[in-house]
Write a structure and sequence with these properties.
Length: about 80
């Protein structure tokens, strides 16, 4: 990803700099099947839009993701589409 940014800006790629960038990934609930990726994407968009951080940092996402909340969100989405059909 970072290399692509350098290429788009037509800047020389500084591999030493790129390797110094910390890769931090917040711990988030993982889907347990191959069918619910859409629910997970919608859930994360929902969370982001309702909790837009002033500035992003790894620490402000630590308590963002809640498995019980995800389950409620999933049930609400399924119920919504059941009413529409």
């Amino acid at each position: 990803f970072v290399c692509d940014i350098f290429k788009r800006k037509e800047s020389p790629i500084d591999e030493k700099f790129i390797h110094k960038i910390p890769l931090r990934m917040p711990k988030v609930p993982q889907q347990t099947n191959g069918e619910e990726c859409g629910i997970f994407v919608l859930y994360f968009i929902h969370l982001f839009m309702n909790n837009i951080p002033q500035s992003y940092s790894y620490s402000n996402t630590k308590n963002w993701f809640d498995s019980d909340d995800l389950d409620r969100f999933r049930k609400n989405v399924h119920a919504f589409f059941q009413r529409k059909t």
